[in-house]
């Protein structure tokens, strides 16, 4: 059978398929696209007829991908990504900068310190490119890049799963209640933390802080595990314990709102490097390349 004799599979059907998989809901996919739920159902049924497989099963109130549906989702995403790159490359040939850019960001360091200034500059230079941002942990962002849910994302380096572009170095600091004796020191020996109640972040830095504690054989007295930076600050401000966070996440404005909190660098000095990452730098779109080049111009140390 020749290719032309196969039934047609459209980009619109693939987009609907991916949205239903993402939201686990026909109605939510329909709302995002601004079409009827019956149109979504028809598109999925057409794909299932075309492929002669069941893409989704219903479990309680959710619509869940079947095993074959999970496999086909990856290929559907690749098809749409390739089509988008082709469209952007053709537009660039005609002197046009347009398309979409999906960015993955994690934690306060990237989302507060780096991303707002970078997005402002990018939108000024490329106003026709539509930008979408998703936030998660650094591990989630890595997985989104690998699954092609985002085009580019911030990452803690090194990251051997991805092609990376270094941007900036940061250090970890201790947040300490000013009533603790250790707050009087200009630097905090990390081994001293085992003597105090500890507040562990569950946000983007959790994995790296846990590795740091393990490296120095520290088993802190963990009182709380919190995911929101403001909650951590409030708990330290209430003299509930010490926490370790990334320095870039701790702005002077935030500290000013918590007068009982002091920040101190750790001894030994503990750095991390943050950059941008893509799945394969040889296959990135013009919009992704422009974003990376602008970021390196603005932040590369």
UniProtKB/TrEMBL annotation:
Residues 9-66 form the HTH lysR-type domain. It comes from the Bacteria. Coiled coil: none annotated. Belongs to the LysR transcriptional regulatory family. SUPFAM superfamilies: Periplasmic binding protein-like II, Winged helix' DNA-binding domain. Keywords: DNA-binding, Transcription, Transcription regulation. GO terms for molecular function: DNA binding; DNA-binding transcription factor activity. InterPro entries: HTH-type_LysR_regulators, LysR_HTH_N, LysR_subst-bd, WH-like_DNA-bd_sf, WH_DNA-bd_sf. The keyword Amino-acid biosynthesis does not apply. The keyword Transcription regulation applies. It holds the Pfam family HTH_1. GO terms for cellular component: cytosol. This is HTH lysR-type domain-containing protein.
């Amino acid at each position: 059978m020749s290719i032309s004799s196969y039934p047609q599979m459209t980009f619109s059907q693939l987009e609907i398929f991916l949205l239903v998989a993402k939201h686990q809901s026909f109605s939510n996919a329909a709302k995002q696209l601004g079409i009827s739920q019956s149109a979504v159902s028809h598109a999925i049924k057409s794909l299932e007829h075309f492929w002669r497989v069941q893409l989704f099963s219903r479990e309680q109130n959710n619509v869940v991908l079947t095993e074959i549906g999970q496999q086909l989702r990856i290929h559907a995403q690749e098809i749409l990504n390739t089509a988008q790159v082709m469209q952007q490359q053709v537009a660039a040939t005609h002197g046009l900068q347009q398309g979409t850019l999906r960015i993955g960001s994690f934690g306060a360091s990237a989302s507060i310190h780096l991303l707002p200034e970078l997005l402002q500059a990018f939108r000024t230079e490329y106003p026709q490119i539509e930008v979408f941002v998703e936030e998660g942990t650094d591990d989630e962002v890595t997985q989104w890049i690998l699954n092609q849910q985002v085009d580019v994302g911030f990452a803690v380096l090194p990251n051997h799963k991805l092609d990376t572009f270094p941007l900036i170095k940061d250090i970890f600091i201790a947040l300490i209640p000013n009533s603790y004796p250790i707050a009087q020191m200009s630097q905090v020996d990390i081994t001293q933390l085992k003597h105090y109640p500890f507040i562990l972040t569950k946000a983007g830095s959790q994995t790296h802080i846990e590795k740091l504690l393990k490296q120095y054989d520290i088993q802190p007295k963990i009182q709380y595990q919190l995911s929101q930076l403001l909650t951590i600050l409030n708990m330290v401000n209430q003299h509930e314990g010490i926490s370790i966070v990334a320095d870039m996440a701790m702005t002077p404005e935030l500290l000013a709102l918590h007068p009982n909190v002091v920040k101190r660098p750790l001894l030994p000095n503990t750095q991390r490097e943050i950059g941008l990452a893509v799945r394969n730098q040889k296959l990135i779109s013009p919009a992704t390349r422009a974003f990376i080049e602008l970021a390196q111009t603005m932040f590369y140390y």
